[in-house]
Design a protein that fits this description.
alpha/beta, five-stranded parallel β-sheet, 21 strands, binds flavin-adenine dinucleotide, membrane, NAD, 14-dihydroretinol saturase A) (RetSat A) (All-trans-retinol 7
Length: 636
């Protein structure tokens, strides 16, 4: 067809107007053609974003097994056939990834060495109440719900209790610095600012600068998080193109930022008392990690009803319904590597070897992966970079905890659901939080002594969980935590045999007394109400998690600015997930699972830049049907 003298060239968009009888050089033709191209582009992008997750295959759902989903002991008969993936470790990084892969039609087996699934989300009962050592509060509640909703089974959807919501304006943290007025942190940025202005009069400029720095660093840091998902070359470009600002912030310590803002040691201590949430001190912590923690809780803090295990249950249910399994009392001895490719795992007991088709994921931590799960030869050949990097960082923070059972009425005893940060002495110019922490650590390590106070985080887990309170209204579970070096405790006992020496037991008794004194200093009314104190040391943590560093790798600038560890390794089909890939914390651990899923399912930086993410993709496909429907289908 031709209009006028010249034939129409259909490859040129503006020629469409001519085809519709408009003048070739008319503005109307150009507008029409432009709008057409624009609409096509918008429709294309929308269709692209609405697509199912990459790598998706329709899953076959089945009914749940009998019994508690979190305590299915390892038996060969429970290992599903034709496994696609084996995941080592049932922390949030392992479970979220496994549930995502399950929703995309893959059969996944999660192996957990502990007697219950959930990793740090585990809980245990004592004197009728439940203790939850590894989760005390979670912020950014909408994001938490969104992440769980993306891959969790709606049947076990977690419900949440907000700390301080009933009568205290969303109070989540209270800081006690010797005889200084306590600091109360309540939900909302304005509440935070008003409270800090009271404690730091005349320092409004510093406070505003601090808030601005928190916002800027947190935003700039996000691309660095994603960098861990890419292959080395892609990561190299990504870091140079998208992470300049993030790397700049990550290279600074909290102390350096406060100095730049003109703050002194007292300002620093008051602004950063939540340091124990990431395990560093102002002089050792990378600033964006601290910024993320402070901002994470600033809009309020929540605790899952039914305890943190409910967060693991919703994910575990998806995995079982998709034909996979989460098996406990299943310690993995070694990852099987053949010709540079991970093919399965060898179990500790009975010399059982399990194979899988698509890959092995270690969600047990970098330390366990390198020192316990891979042979020294495989580490030398493929993971020497990660090993050297880990050794250069040194040990992450370890802790002492006390699990205290209290009998009585919480209100009358002055107990509430917010956390308390107790510091024996107030900071002063020349006496910083770093020094307070160092003194505290030295005191906690003192053997044969009931002297010397240490800093302590105190949380009342059972008061945060309305279900627990309903069942045991007169019994309260308190958790106390302090920083402590692992070495003195490791030296006192044999880690492998779990045999504890008399000296170790004696030291634990003394620590019990010291925790009691601190508790009574904070809550004097508890004097005749404490019915039990049980102390846990880095050795206990090693027994339950197979590491002493509670938050994994240290959160120093050296670690945070490094491209390591990545989700991918030089061993083909061996992937990493868990807090060491991102940073410590429940939410970063979940993100590590999402990063690993992105890599495994084939997402790339272009997808991310167009807004197509693995988390969004999970919402585009159906979750598991209810168990009733599945049972009915099975009986047909
Ligand atoms: C004392 C404490 C308090 C905390 N408080 C909070 C808090 O209030 N809020 C918050 O957001 N975060 C908190 N965290 C941090 C948070 O709980 C963790 O960062 C996060 O849950 C870690 O998840 P993960 O996926 O890395 O794995 P983890 O939860 O560490 O799980 C790893 C799992 O791997 C298993 N494993 C190891 N080796 C083997 C093997 N050979 N075979 C089989 N399994 C193996 C371990 O048993 C473990 O279950 C706290 C952590 C601790 C320790």
């Amino acid at each position: 067809m031709s209009v006028g003298s010249r034939p129409i060239d259909y490859s040129k968009p503006f020629e469409l107007g001519r085809a519709c009888g408009m003048k070739s050089d008319g503005w109307a033709a150009k507008c029409l053609a432009g709008a057409g191209v624009g609409l096509l582009a918008v429709a294309g992008v929308r269709a692209y974003l609405r697509r199912r997750p990459k790598g998706y295959r329709r899953p076959t759902w089945r009914a749940l097994p009998e019994g508690d989903l979190l305590q299915q002991g390892f038996k060969l008969s429970r290992v599903p056939e034709d496994l696609d993936f084996i995941v080592i470790g049932s922390g949030m990084g392992g479970l979220w990834l496994s549930a995502a892969l399950t929703k995309c039609g893959y059969k996944v087996l999660v192996l957990e060495q502990h007697y219950i699934a959930g990793g740090c989300c585990h809980a245990f009962s004592q004197n009728g109440v439940e203790f939850t050592p590894g989760i005390h509060y979670i912020g950014d509640i909408d994001m938490a719900k969104g992440l769980l909703g993306a891959v969790g089974d709606p049947k076990f959807q977690a419900d949440w209790h907000q700390l301080g919501a009933s009568d205290d304006g969303g109070l989540y943290d209270k800081a006690l610095f010797g005889d200084r007025e306590p600091i109360f942190l309540r939900q909302g940025r304005d509440a935070w600012y008003a409270e800090m202005c009271k404690h730091m009069p005349g320092k409004e400029k510093l406070l505003k600068g601090w808030l601005a720095a928190l916002d800027e660093a947190r935003k700039a840091y996000m691309p660095l998080f994603f960098a861990k998902a890419w292959q080395p070359w892609t990561q190299w470009f990504w870091l140079r193109l998208c992470c300049r600002a993030g790397l700049k912030w990550a290279g600074k310590t909290v102390h350096e930022v406060i100095q730049e803002l003109g703050g002194d040691e007292v300002d620093e201590a008051l602004l950063t008392f939540q340091c124990m949430d990431h395990g560093e001190t102002p002089r050792t912590a990378s600033f964006p990690v601290h910024a993320m923690i402070v901002s994470h809780y600033m809009n309020g803090a929540w605790f899952p009803k039914g305890g943190p295990l409910s967060l693991a249950r919703t994910l575990t249910s998806t995995i079982f319904k998709g034909g996979g399994a989460v098996l406990v009392r299943a310690p993995v001895q070694q990852i099987q590597v053949t010709n540079g490719r991970a093919t399965g795992v060898q179990m500790k007991k009975k010399d059982v070897v399990l194979n899988c088709r698509k890959g092995v994921v270690s969600a047990a931590g970098l330390d366990a992966t390198i020192h316990r799960l891979l042979s020294p030869e495989d580490v030398d050949q493929y993971l020497s970079e990660e090993r050297d990097f880990m050794h250069s960082l040194g040990q992450g923070t370890s802790c002492l905890s006390a699990f205290v059972t209290v009998k009585g009425n919480a209100k009358e005893l002055g107990l509430s659901d917010h956390n308390v940060w107790f510091f024996p002495k107030p900071p002063s110019v020349g006496y910083s939080l770093d020094e307070i922490t160092a003194e505290s650590r030295a005191n906690a390590a003192k053997m044969n002594s009931t002297e010397g106070n240490f800093f302590c985080f105190i949380g009342a887990g059972s008061l945060k969980d309305p279900e627990c309170m309903e069942q045991h209204p007169d019994t309260i579970a308190l958790e106390m935590i302090t920083d402590a070096e692992a070495e003195p405790f490791l030296a006192l006992s044999d880690v492998e045999s779990h045999r504890r020496t008399a000296e170790y037991k004696g030291h634990k008794k003394q620590l019990e007394e010291r925790f009691r004194q601190i508790l009574l200093a904070v809550y004097p009314k508890l004097e005749h109400h404490i019915i039990n104190i049980d102390v846990s040391t880095p050795l206990s943590v090693d027994f339950y998690l197979k590491r002493t560093a509670i938050y994994g790798l240290p959160h120093t600038p050296q670690r945070i600015t490094s491209p390591l560890p990545r989700v991918v390794t030089k061993i083909q089909n061996l992937y990493l997930s868990g807090q060491d890939v991102t940073t410590g914390g429940w939410m970063p651990a979940v993100f590590s699972g999402a990063l690993a899923a992105s890599q495994i399912l084939g997402y790339n930086p272009l997808d991310l830049m167009c807004g197509r993410t693995v988390i969004g993709g999970m919402y585009k496909v159906e979750g598991p049907p209810s168990n009733k429907v599945l049972q009915a289908q099975a009986s047909l």
